[in-house]
Records
---
Amino acid sequence: MVKRQTWILLAVFAVFIGLAFFWTKYQNNMKTSHPTPTVTPVQDLFAVDGTAIASFKIVDNGSGMTVMVARDANGQWSLVEPQAQYTDIASVEAAVTQLTSLQVTSSLEESGNLADYGLDKPAYTITVNVNGGGQLVAQVGSPTATSSGYYVQMPGSVPQIIPKYGLDAVLKLLKNPPIATATSTPTTVITGTLAAPSSTPSSLPVLTDISAPASTATVPPPTSTPVPQATATPLAATPTETAKP
């Protein structure tokens, strides 16, 4: 008969085999539902030069908020939506620079479950129209687990990760459309010829020293008043009284 201790060891061994089987199956399921991102060579999300962009549009799919700019007949940027009389050209140019600078940091091996990346119902849609009729569309999903990037998918490709700070610089146009205000700066037009100042300075009047007139009056010398001198008067002799016999 098999000893009881041997049965216990066989049971423990069977438990370990079962745990190993379920752990392997769990890992395979995780890889299928959450493919591991692979570092890809540096590539641009929109592989197009900024001068070739005819228009671009950003849509917030949740609220329906939209901003769109396009070049006019003179090649200048003009705000189409929302409508405005004046367009902040500098803000548009900055957004175009950001659009053409967005780089893919990593790509998923498989598409997997798009709901895990917020791509089943994308939060934003960016459409870039290129001169000649080409069009590029990017669907923006949810932020990554570390909040350092966004999951983005182009038609026919696997989800990719784009740095959050770069994409936020483009998405901010939804809350701050490139609307400018009219400013008028008065200008002064000067006609005619201005006379050049003379290089020879004008002579200054010469100051003459005016002496004070000399006084010709003669001041008489001071006169002294003679002081009367006191004269001594001789005293009269007082008769001496003679005693009687």
Note: DSSP finds three helices and nine strands in the chain.
---
Amino acid sequence: MKLFEPFVLGGLSLPNRIVMAPMTRNRAAGTIPPEMAAVHYSARAGAGLIVSEATQVSARGQGYQDTPGIHTDQQVLAWRRVTDAVHEAGGRMVVQLVHVGRLSHSDFHGSLPVAPSAVRPVGFIRTPRGLKPYETPWVPSPAEVAVIVEEFARAAANAREAGFDGVEIHGASGFLVDQFLQSRTNQRTDQYGGSVENRARFALELVEAAAAHWDRSRIGFTLSPGGGHKGIRDDNPLETFAYAARALGENGVGYLHVMEEPINDESPARLVRNNFHGPLVTSGSYTRETGEEALQSGCADLVAFGRAFTANPDLVEKFRSNTRLALPDPKTFYSGGALGYVDAAVLPRVRS
């Protein structure tokens, strides 16, 4: 099966094409990755590549309780314990860098959330002080956008200090990069708004910022062309994401990671594949069989699995032997503590 074939990604020799998808788990009290995170991730080192949970680049980039950052020395040291454990277990790991933008709240950091335009999300957010309506975001000037770009640059530098093998910029799920890219949340009239070229400018600047600290082959980028997260929409998503894929490819990113949610009956992975010629990761409720089909069809080079890894640290070996998988318990996904996080991580692993 192609799932078990090796693959070279940015100079990393992956023993298989199975990726552990980024999964928010809300275990980082005080935004510091806990010691048990080293157990959690290293138990899954059989994956060809591990992508960390979304990790905020600044205090203002946080939008969920107990999610980790990578903007303080203490956070970097905690992540170093994780990457050391993963490497000792024979694995490879990149960090997913995120800024949630308008999907934050002043309860987290004492200031209004930031977004390309003053478009308030519909609905409520759970903050440290309870459930509250989303706030109308603050709109940064071009000079203030440059400050956010520098936050990503510092986070990329910190990722190297923390021992990661690369970085993945989170440009999906309705977060800040996605808010700049999509027309319904970007109503700017300056160099960051209007045309698709302008709306993609922020994303490309983040790649340039990360490239000051990483070879471009070690920089990934996540896109969700079909996602309608928290009301985010684009007037012409096929054009927008085709352009984004081409521009990111021309900028030399090491890979694109596409969330497979249908867009106008078009497969996002297929749309991106037609416009991006580098390595492509696809994720979206894949099974062993459908993941293999995605690789055989040529629409992706690697397949990411999320929930399956939650309950099966030894997922690669279970796939290899076609063993029945344990089922995850959704009640433990964001509950905090060891239950559902490291309790399944005590099984002996066979290094791939």
Note: Residues 24 and 53 are 5 Å apart (CA to CA).
